[in-house]
Design brief:
This protein is 43% helix and 19% strand. It is built from 15 helices and 13 strands.
Length: 354
């Protein structure tokens, strides 16, 4: 954290453009930390000149996305073409929609809205040359009597139309998630830009027992390897038929709309359903219970991340589970209690959805 703050302050002192989410500087979970990245543009080679404004090229956009830990949601991304025939002539227009997601300090993700961008090669060439109508005469027009004609310039633009459309849409995604503009003035483009991202805290992962267990789980993706590394006692639920498996969200339609009082009771802890909890086996270590809780958070988010009515107002089971997962004072007993609540809620929702 100190390193990130120092880098940010140094960049500010150097007149950099800062696109840092201030909330990123204080991660609320030890699993995560903040990194600050400074990007300097080569104005001549890294930008498109659009009527005097500078638009970063695709490779720069990718660097910014990586510096901000932005990934793109496949279901929200597509690029296609449309045929047009109007005042700008008969041509193909490129359209792209992109959607991004960014990790937050608590490890959750913020998903932005779908951003669209349209790139019209003919219209762009007409604007650049200064022509307001597309016809046989104007297609041969040249800027200042030299250089390429409007028609030739439009042909060049068409070769990279798909990339330009995707770049424009991704720039809008980045603008939404970081605040960075889609175009810069020449003066702005010459300044360094600062971005921040939330990443896994490798120091925590490698220096604590629970961190090492989580790191091994993420690296291997299998319980068998974890058991080989730490012993089967670290994974007491290995091999059980009731072990939770990640679910396809398409199988969970209708669950989120279920806000019955019974479900709210499960989430909020109302009634006697907590009183009959039995102590788990001694081999249920805090590390193993934490890993199991993380599996539920990842595999059943759609069923847990809902607003339910409880005796004391609305509750969100997913938020309750996240707070338990991030609580540095959590115990094996508190983990067991939360896991039991989650299992009962999932069982209840599955029964009502079937």
């Amino acid at each position: 954290m100190t390193t990130a703050l120092i880098a940010l302050q140094d960049a500010k002192n150097n007149g950099a453009l800062v696109y840092v989410n201030e909330g990123h500087l204080n991660p609320s979970a030890p699993l995560y930390k903040t990194e600050v990245t400074v990007i300097k543009l080569d104005v001549k080679n890294d930008c498109h000149n659009i009527s005097g404004k500078l638009m970063p090229k695709r490779e720069v956009v990718d660097r910014v996305g990586e510096a901000s830990a932005i990934s793109y949601v496949s279901s929200g991304c597509r690029t296609w073409t449309e045929a047009r025939d109007d005042s700008a002539g008969k041509r193909t227009v490129f359209i792209s929609e992109q959607q991004g997601t960014m990790r937050l300090p608590d490890g959750s993700y913020r998903t932005g809205s779908v951003q669209a961008y349209e790139f019209d090669p003919n219209l762009r060439a007409m604007v650049d040359i200064g022509v307001d109508e597309w016809n046989e005469q104007t297609k041969q027009a040249r800027k200042n009597g030299s250089g390429k004609t409007v028609a030739a310039l439009a042909m060049d633009y068409s070769k990279f139309g798909r990339q330009r459309a995707e770049t424009g849409a991704r720039l809008r995604v980045i603008k939404e998630l970081t605040g960075m503009p889609t175009v810069f003035s020449p003066e702005e483009a010459g300044k360094p830009m600062v971005f921040s991202r939330v990443v896994m805290n490798t120091d925590y992962l490698l220096k604590t027992p629970e961190g090492r267990l989580l790191a091994a789980a993420q690296a291997t993706g299998t319980q068998d390897v974890i058991a080989a590394l730490y012993g089967k006692q670290a994974l007491p639920d290995m091999g059980r038929e009731t072990a939770p498996e990640p679910r396809d969200v398409t199988e969970q339609s209708g669950v989120q709309g279920n806000t019955g009082a019974g479900l709210a009771g499960e989430a909020a802890g109302d009634g006697d359903d907590w009183a009959d909890l039995k102590p788990a086996a001694e081999q249920d270590t805090l590390e193993a219970l934490t890993l199991k809780l993380e599996e539920y958070l990842n595999g059943y988010r759609d069923q847990l991340d809902v607003a339910l009515e409880g005796k004391n107002g609305k509750v969100n089971p997913y938020d309750l589970a996240v707070r338990e997962f991030q609580d540095p004072k959590a115990t094996a007993e508190s983990r067991k209690a939360m896991l039991s609540r989650i299992e009962r809620l999932i069982k209840s929702t599955e029964g009502k959805a079937s």
